[in-house]
Amino acid sequence: MEARELVIVGGGPAGLTAGLYAARARLDAVLIERLSPGGQMLTTDMVENWPGDLEAVSGFDLSDRMRKHAQHFGLEIVNNEVSAIAIDGEHKIINTPKGDIRCKALILCPGASPRKLGVPGEAELTGKGVSYCGTCDGPFYREQEVACVGGGDTAAEEALFLTKFAKKVFLIHRRDQLRATGILAERVMQNDKIEVLWSQAPLAFQGEKGVESVRIRRLKDNSEYDLAVQGAFVFVGTVPNTQFLDGLVEMDGQGFIITDKKQETSLPGVFAAGDCCAKILRQIVTAAGDGATAAFAAQRYLEE
Ligand SMILES: Cc1cc2nc3c(=O)[nH]c(=O)nc-3n(C[C@H](O)[C@H](O)[C@H](O)COP(=O)(O)OP(=O)(O)OC[C@H]3O[C@@H](n4cnc5c(N)ncnc54)[C@H](O)[C@@H]3O)c2cc1C
User: Fold this and answer.
1) How confident is the model over 242-276, as pLDDT tens digits?
2) List 45, 109, 137, 148, catalytic entry
3) Which fold is adopted by the domain 2-113+238-303?
4) Fold annotation for 116-234
5) How many Å lie between the centroid of ligand 1 and the Cα of residue 58?
6) Phi, psi of 32 (to 5 degrees)
7) Do 93 and 100 touch, CB atoms closer than 8 A?
8) How far apart are CA 272 and CA 95, in angstroms?
9) What distance in angstroms lies between residue 10's CA and the mean position of ligand 1's atoms?
């Protein structure tokens, strides 16, 4: 069985930063990523809150730069998917379809995926008008009308991005005030192409071969109506990609991993970083910070 000092699961900003620090510490580390390195950054059009980059940087470029930076210092990145993890004394056994890897320290950075609304028509019309990624699917809606569901930073950013293509973006939000950061909320309110549908919630996505309308409830008086749109984008939070851990480490009620200030989980030598953790701010900069802390703490753990 392959043996390593450290295995890092996931190649988003948390994993790539952990990998950079581990490589510079000269640890025998490997990063396992099931897709392309970059994680959610790859589904982000422009990032304008990465410190030091005053000109907004594309999510694709930032991913590429982080990957190259870590590899420059010798990090090995492999394309594979971790299916399960077992504990054997102080060793951790990482199960993958390409074989098992034994390691002493482990950093979990599997990130998070978009939360589904769970309304009728959502599953059936996903990929046929229902989408969770404006960057990926926005260009399909040139001069069309689309709905965007949510009121946080991601919903605001994505609604603004969609105005590059769509002639009208309806932002459906269940409250009467956006939760998005001030500067994003201001831009939404100033954009003529965006109409916010306050205190309303989607009940169903409707259409035969593709989205034709969204059934909407006005929460103040419970009345309902159909909003005709050709596309519907859902941005209502994320769920952690922690199912494969099968309860290995302590998690909160939603499956986010609980860590201490060293990013260590309830299992000694198992650390977690980024969006998979229970925390209040899920961003690239906090994921990178968690990754650096986790790699530093893993190094200490290995030395002890
Ligand atoms: C549309 C959108 C726009 C955003 N805009 C911004 C922004 O402008 N600024 C900002 O700071 N943040 C933004 N964010 C949030 C930011 O992208 C995330 O907080 C950040 O990417 C989290 O990093 P992470 O490394 O924890 O996880 P992720 O980026 O989710 O990466 C996790 C990686 O782990 C891999 N993985 C998962 N499970 C396994 C497994 N079992 N085996 C192997 N690999 C696995 C995944 O394929 C993925 O590549 C945005 C997010 C979205 C969705």
Assistant:
1) 999 999 999 999 999 999 999 999 999 999 999 99
2) 137
3) FAD/NAD(P)-binding domain (3.50.50)
4) FAD/NAD(P)-binding domain (3.50.50)
5) 14
6) -105, 120
7) yes
8) 18
9) 9
